[in-house]
Amino acid sequence: MAKMKKVLILANMAKPGLTEEVSRLRPWLEERVRVIAVCPANELPPPEACKADIAIVFGGDGTLLSAARVLSGMPIPLIGVNMGKLGFLAEFSVEHMKKHFDEIISGNVPATERMMCEVTVRQGNHSDEEYSSPAANDVTIVAGRPFRMIDLRVTQSGDEIAQYLGDGLVVSTPNGSTGHNMSASGPILEPTLEAMTITPIAPHMLSLRPLVVRSDRPLVVTATRVNEGTSVVIDGVSCASLSEGGTVRIRRADRGILIVPHPGRSFFKTLSNKLHWGRSPHHSLRRPDQVTPDAGL
After folding, report:
1. Looking at 118-127, 146-155, 196-205, 269-278, which range is the least confident one?
2. Cα–Cα distance between 296 and 174 in angstroms, integer?
3. What pLDDT score does 87 carry?
4. Less packed terminus of the chain by CB within 10 Å, N or C?
5. What is the distance between the alpha carbons of residues 98 and 157, in angstroms, rounded to a whole number?
6. Quick one: CA dihedral 177, 180, 182, 186, positive or negative?
7. Cis bond before residue 187 (omega within 30° of 0)
8. 3-state SS, one letter per residue, for the chain
C-alpha cells in the first residue's frame, strides 16, 4: 500500500496473557500498518488516537463496549478480537482477524454503524446534581436496597408510554438487545436498526410487556417511587444513583459506533452459532463430529 493505515490497539490489560498476546502480534501488524498507540480499553486514549483509521480491540464483549464509550463521537471503526467467553460483539478470533486483516484495511469489509445513546441522570428534590454518559448497549434502572418494587413513569416527547411498577427497567439499543434486554425477555433487534426497546424487569402487571419505540425522540424515565439503593447502570459498568423525583433522559447519540463485521458471518448466523437461536431441538442431540465447525469462517 502506498500509505500505511494508522491503527490504535485497545485491550483489556487485566486479562491474563493478553498483554503478551498483543506483544506477539505487534510485529505482524507493523508489517502491514502503523500502530500509533496501545492503550487500556477502559481509559481515555492519547490525543493522537483521533488520527487512527481503525482500532483493534482485544478482549471480550465488555472490552468492545468500553472501547465504544471511550471513542464515542470519533468515526473510528472497531475490530473486536475475542479473548473472552462468548464473543458475540467481538466476532473475530485472532486467527480470523489475521486471515481477513488485509481485506479489512483495504476497505473491502465496510464497517456497520450501530446506534449509541446519550444518557443524562438528574436527581430529584430540586438538586443540581447531574450525571452523563454514552451508552452502547443499554441503560438499566435497578430497584436496589431495600429491594421493594419501584415505580417508573416513561414518556416520549411528552406522551406517556406507561407507568412501570416492578424491579426495574431496561432500555436497550439494537446492539444491546441480545444482552440484559434479552435476559429480561425483551425482543432481539437487528443491530443496524434505529430503535430502542423498553423491557420491564419482573413487572407487577402481566400486561406490562416489552416495547419497541422509535429512536429519534428522547425517552424520559421519571422516578415516581424508588428505593435508597435504586441505581442507573450503563452498559453494566458505570453507575449513578436515582432519587425520588429524579429523571433519566435517554436520547440517540449524534454518531453511532462503527463495528467491522466478520465477513464470514451474518447477524443471524452469529445468533445461531453463539446463542443457538432458531435451531431445531434435534440439533443439540447431534454428535460433535456432525456439527459444522465455525473455524473455517
Report:
1. 269-278
2. 28
3. 76
4. N
5. 47
6. negative
7. no
8. CCCCCEEEEEECCCCCCHHHHHHHHHHHHHCCCEEEEEEECCCCCCHHHHHCCEEEEEECHHHHHHHHHHCCCCCCCEEEEECCCCCCCCCECHHHHHHHHHHHHCCCCCCEEECCEEEEEECCCCCCCEEEEEECCEEEEECCCCCCCEEEEEEECCEEEEEEEECEEEEECCCCCCCHHHHCCCCCCCCCCCEEEEEEECCCCCCCCCEEEECCCCEEEEEEECCCCCEEEECCCEEEECCCCCEEEEEECCCCEEECCCCCCCHHHHHHHHHCCCCCHHHHHCCHHHCCCCCCC
Its pTM surpasses 0.85: yes
Q: Please return the burial class of 243, using the count of CB atoms within 10 Å of its CB with bins 0-12, 13-18 and 19+.
A: middle
Q: Which residue has the higher pLDDT, 241 or 276?
A: 241
- Whether 255 shows a pLDDT value over 80: the answer reads yes
Residue 37: count of CB within 10 angstroms of its CB: 17
254 is written with which cell numbers? Answer: 449524534
Catalytic residues: 61
φ, ψ dihedrals at 158, nearest 5°: 85, -15
Name the one residue in this structure whose C-alpha cell is 429480561.
184
Q: Cα–Cα distance between 212 and 227 in angstroms, integer?
A: 27
- Per-residue pLDDT reduced to its tens digit, 153-186: 999 999 999 999 999 999 999 999 999 999 999 9
Largest CA distance in the chain: 64
Euclidean distance between CA atoms 13 and 20, whole angstroms: 10
Query: Residue range 91-120: average pLDDT?
Result: 94
Q: Cα(156)–Cα(278) distance, rounded to whole angstroms?
A: 33
At residue 283, the pLDDT reads 57
Q: Domains plus CATH for the chain?
A: 6-110 (3.40.50.10330), 117-252 (2.60.200.30)
